[in-house]
Specification:
alpha+beta; six-stranded mixed β-sheet; two-stranded antiparallel sheet; 282 residues
């Protein structure tokens, strides 16, 4: 498979060009930036057992009848110079590739599994999302900023599931089951399809390779809902930014986003008597 995909042998998976490694070491030796300190929030990570490239952390709260989601994503973009050696190599690789005999990482491990990984008890830079969800599962407020965070524990899916099964979930994610079920119900109502197929892992045995089927736990699904919630919030922010940019550019050109002249306020767009393309009457 490695030969077919043009990937290095397993023994060389962590090998990177010298200039990439040199820049990675320089980045790793640079401390966190001067941003908001959010290390008081008791984040935890949830990943497969033994994982080292921890790029997401979560802390959930109950707020009234609803929830507050704190979601931290490792902020590589603030420390990896655009157009530099590390950036160029990451663009060439495209993604981390996971194989039966190991992985071919996107970034040098000194970064992805070390200085930039959200490892427990380490202060790291992150893009910190704060999302409020009401009792119906609807998002009511979204905020994102750069901040320093610190994970308090590295959890794995099986351990988290065992905690919920025993009625003793980790305090930082106690609302996960209720919020996960609520958000899943919202998505299903909107037409989402959830196949819940088992996870397939190719493992080496004494007699060769074998496919191991792992059933998804409830925690897998609940945790995925938090990731999807954050992704949807990001998409809404980007769509909002696009619409505002379109309105600004149109105004700069003396036109409304619908294309009609800005100096003819009585002329409506899209068959309307009045123009609402700027978010209000035109």
């Amino acid at each position: 498979m490695r030969a077919e995909l043009g990937l290095p042998p397993a023994a060389d998976s962590d090998q990177f060009p010298a200039d990439v490694l040199a820049e990675a070491q320089k980045i790793a030796s640079t401390g966190p930036g001067d941003v908001e300190d959010a290390t008081q929030l008791p984040f935890v990570t949830i990943d497969p057992a033994g994982a080292r490239d921890l790029d997401q952390a979560v802390f959930l709260e109950r707020v009234g009848a609803g929830f507050r989601v704190h979601y931290a994503i490792a902020d590589l973009g603030s420390v990896i110079p655009p157009g530099g050696a590390v950036d160029a190599e990451a663009r060439r690789r495209g993604q981390t590739i996971y194989l039966p005999d190991g992985r071919v990482p996107l970034h040098p491990p000194v970064l992805s599994e070390g200085a930039l990984s959200l490892l427990p008890d380490e202060v790291r830079g992150a893009a910190l999302w704060t999302i409020d969800v009401d009792e119906h599962g609807a998002t009511t407020r979204v905020d994102v900023r750069r901040a320093l965070v610190r994970s308090t524990a590295q959890l794995d899916y099986e351990g988290v599931q065992a905690g919920f099964d025993a009625g003793t979930p980790h305090p930082s994610i106690e609302p996960l089951a209720d919020l996960g079920r609520l958000r899943r119900a919202v998505r299903v109502e909107l037409g989402a399809v959830e196949l819940a197929l088992p996870e397939q892992e190719v493992v080496m045995t004494d007699s060769g390779w074998r496919v191991h089927m792992r059933q998804r736990t409830d925690v897998d699904g609940w945790n995925a809902e938090i990731s999807l919630l954050t992704g949807m919030a990001a998409a809404q922010l980007m769509l909002g930014g696009r619409d505002r940019s379109a309105a600004y550019l149109a105004a700069e050109r003396g036109r409304r986003p619908c294309g009609l002249p800005a100096d003819r306020p009585g002329l409506g767009c899209a068959g309307r008597r009045r123009c609402h393309c700027l978010g209000g009457p035109g």
